[in-house]
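Input sequence (243 aa), recorded before submission:
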Amino acid sequence: MFLNQGIGGHGLDAKTVCLTFDDGPGETASPGGPGPRTLELARFLAERKITATFFMIGKSVKQYPDIVREVSQRGHLVGNHTYDHADLCNRSPDSDSAVSQITRTEELFRNVPTFVRLFRPPHGAWSVSLAAELNSVDEIKSYVGPVLWDIPTSKNDAKTADWMFWRDGKSAEDCADAYILDLKTAGHGGIILMHDSLHEDLPRSRMYPLDMAKLVVDWLQKSGYEFVPLVSIPQLARAQHSS
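Predicted structure, token format:
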């Protein structure tokens, strides 16, 4: 069911986190350079025994099916992030419907064992009327959403959001430091939002998601945080085996 309000890490202990990544899949061919790192992230997290959730864009899923397959094989969950990163609350008259944005993407997950019917709206854009529109369609009303986040603590927080760091040409270290400071200041864990790719050429060409994630994960593990799958959150648990 699509709820009127966004879903965060309610019910999780203060030192428990769920890692989530948006806007993929994508992978940069040049080793060590800037750009998307979906495969490398999936492998790194699996080595650390962390199950992340990758909220993927349909058009990128279509472009990189092998990446999606390996992300799933590594045990990570895969969720729906619309077909082309559409702002569902500000659609032009000739754009795809919100329902189509979701169903077109789900079609591409038919053979992905770890796909779960969790939905995260691009930009976190949501409304009561949008929830009602989606719940009126039998084909998708078994989804659970909107899945939002707790860290960064503000949806549009320029001090923490990783994509803003990449847009401004900042380093992985600067970005990781901002996330760690946000976690320290908040005093709690919850759902952490990062990006393994981005839907815009800039800042995608300047991003260092793997390096940044490694720094944050290292700090979290040294600080005694527990990593749990997103479906451990009570409101999301019933979506665990949906597909």
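Checked by second reader. The longest strand covers residues 16-24.
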